[in-house]
Amino acid sequence: MLSLVHPSVDRYDAWIAAHREWGPGLHEDGFGIGEDDRVDSEVGFAAWISKLRQGPGDLWWIVEDGVVLGGIALRAPDDPRAARHGHVGYGVRPSARGRGVASWALAQVVDLARDAGRQSIALVCLSDNVASIRTIERCGGTLEKVLDDGRAQRFVIRL
Fold first, then answer.
1. What CATH number has the domain bearing residue 23?
2. Closest by alpha carbon to 30, among 64, 57, 9, 66?
3. In this protein, which residues make up the domain named N-acetyltransferase (predicted)?
4. Where are the alpha helices (DSSP H) in the chain?
5. Is 30 left (phi over 0), alpha (psi -120 to 50) or beta?
6. Model pTM?
7. How far apart are CA 63 and CA 139, in angstroms?
């Protein structure tokens, strides 16, 4: 059964397995890893988890039977990153794609945003990411505008 859990140091082994599956240099949407984060050691991982807990918004890992399948973030309404990256970012590890994991997680976060009184949330994805576009549309997203000379699209989900 899928669940959303807040990041914690006790899930290091499960998280690092997901992280390594992405491969070096690939962007892992939904995990909130910055260029300066050193997550390959338990000490660096613990520091990163501490930093995540202090940031604006909320972040969850998508977990099934103890396995971290991906991550999803809901940025605060006034987070300056939302203008460029949207309010929601998510990613699913390659081996878990195509099973509806992202759609399930996004639907959960849409409900949480609605329960928190938000009127809408924005999501941005690359224009050639057909799977993400379909996920966003399944959850009620409509295209708001095209960005970066057509390389990205911004969607809005009205709550």
1. 3.40.630.30
2. 57
3. 17-159
4. 12-22, 42-54, 82-85, 101-115, 130-138
5. left
6. 0.92
7. 20
Domain hosting 104: range is 2-158
Q: Which pair of tokens denotes residue 122?
A: 């924005």
Based on the structure, what is the number of domains in the chain?
1
Q: Is 127 exposed, middle or buried (0-12, 13-18, 19+ CB in 10 A)?
A: middle
The encoded tokens of residue 89 equal 């970012």
By the 8 A CB rule, do 34 and 85 touch?
no
